[in-house]
Design a protein that fits this description.
The chain has helices at residues 27-33, 58-70, 86-97, 115-120, 142-150, 165-168, 171-178, 247-262, 267-273, 303-315, 336-348, 363-369, 381-391, 409-417, and strands spanning 12-14, 37-40, 51-54, 77-81, 103-105, 130-134, 154-157, 189-193, 207-212, 219-223, 231-235, 238-242, 285-289, 292-297, 322-327, 354-358, 375-378, 397-401. The chain is 32% helix and 20% strand.
């Protein structure tokens, strides 16, 4: 454990240096709670006896331990990365493969250089028939490191978009990093999204299975007739009902289906299981509330995911007004103002009835959108929620979106409580 408050007798305590606190400060507390040993970078005087293993880097040793543990299993290990759709694609694939046996998969946000080895890889057990690992990255080297300690047999990049530009500098930087999963040594199968122009540039080092909304793909898809209550996607002439009329979800279904069928899941199982899938909270999840419809896409935001969500809002049928509620996009570096301007221009290209924003940079969105729609910017989310409550009418459809750090779900909770 890295948290002295979660120690149970017999644990190994990892004294990680953090941004605000140093884990070495809590070695005594961990020993008192029953930790048998500590992994740290320097010796600490304690009141309770505890074996102290001194190393040059706790994170590096964690990675090496995780790699050795992973090598004790000869099961398919699927690595999933991308700018958007990682978690939903992972959950869909887990949903499909669970029909065949116990599935090991990343839980929550444990997809980093610390979370993946400690919380994910080291929880592998013999009872699992497959492991699905979500791999996050916000700086160069992240994916390369994660692939080295996870040694995936299968890899997929869902898409490449302007995200974490503060760390990568450009979309080209994102592409260079994410594509390392598909070019990793030891990879058996690479799943290539040929509908994404950035992904299509990658030259995988492994056997390649191509998927996309393109007739030439190995797993090719097209849209079927849909409404707010029913939607389907046709993949290789198999009609698959999707639980929500969400264009992003259909892309995730295509990606997960390509992997699942390749791993032996029958098409009939895909058709049976997909309508039963519960979309991940905060990712274009449709909710009814106080007489209007909420499209909850509050988990995170970048330009591409926002444009997709706006398309979803625009296609929503009904007589109610369409209202876009937006918070800042983080980690965009020097491109911050431009990407917010792109969202503003996307609003102009979408049939909306009003735009509400909050945050430091989303005022750019309001300013651009105001050329066509009633647009309002607020310094606080509380003030926005208050005015939104007064503005909304029965039948309205609200798309609420923003970066994780904006916690835009609090606006939904405010609306729900009124």
């Amino acid at each position: 454990s890295t948290d002295n408050r979660e120690i149970i007798p017999g644990d190994l305590f990892l004294a990680l240096p953090g941004e605000k606190v140093d884990g070495h400060q809590f070695i005594d507390s961990a020993a008192r709670a029953g930790a048998l040993a500590v992994l740290g970078t320097h010796q600490v005087t304690t009141d309770f006896p505890i074996q102290q293993c001194i190393v040059d880097s706790v994170v590096r040793i964690m990675g090496e331990l995780a790699l050795q543990w992973r090598r004790s299993f000869s099961i398919p290990v699927i690595g999933i990365t991308g700018s958007n759709g990682k978690t939903t694609t992972k959950e869909l694939l887990k949903h499909y493969l669970a029909d065949q046996g116990l599935v090991h998969a990343t839980e929550g946000n444990f997809n980093t250089s610390i979370g993946l080895p400690l919380i994910t890889l080291l929880t592998l057990e013999n009872k699992y028939s497959v492991s699905i690992l979500e791999m996050g990255a916000n700086q160069p080297g992240d994916i390369e490191y994660l692939t080295k300690i996870a040694e995936p047999t299968h890899g997929i990049v869902t898409n490449i978009a302007p995200a974490h530009l503060e760390g990568f500098g450009s979309v080209e930087g994102v592409l260079a990093e994410k594509s390392r999963l598909l070019t990793a040594s030891g990879l058996d199968v690479a799943f290539l999204n040929i509908s994404d122009p950035n992904c299509a540039q990658v030259k995988p080092s492994a056997r390649t299975i191509r998927f996309g909304f393109d007739p030439s793909a190995d797993f090719h898809a097209r849209h079927e007739t849909e409404s707010n209550d029913h939607t389907a996607i046709i993949i290789n002439d198999h009609s698959i009902k999707v639980p929500e009329p969400n264009p992003a979800l259909k892309k995730n279904v295509l990606a997960a289906t390509a992997m699942a069928v390749t791993l032996g899941v029958e098409w009939s199982a895909i058709q049976r299981l997909t309508p039963r899938f519960s979309p991940v909270s905060g990712r274009c999840q449709v909710r009814k509330m106080n007489g209007y419809t909420i499209i909850d896409d509050t988990y995170n935001a970048n330009v591409e995911s926002t444009q997709t969500a706006l398309g979803f809002l625009a296609e929503f049928s009904g007589r109610g007004r369409k209202i876009f509620v937006f918070g800042d996009m983080f980690e965009m570096g020097p491109a911050t103002e431009e990407v917010h301007a792109q969202v503003g221009r996307a609003c102009l290209d979408t049939s909306l009835d009003a735009v509400f924003t909050t945050g430091k940079y989303s005022e750019i969105v309001t300013r651009i959108a105001s050329a066509r729609y009633p647009s309002f910017h607020f310094k606080t989310k509380e003030r926005l929620a208050e005015q939104l409550q007064r503005f909304c009418q029965p039948g309205d459809v609200l798309l609420i979106k923003g970066s994780r750090g904006m916690a835009m779900e609090t606006i939904i909770r405010d609306l729900e409580s009124k």
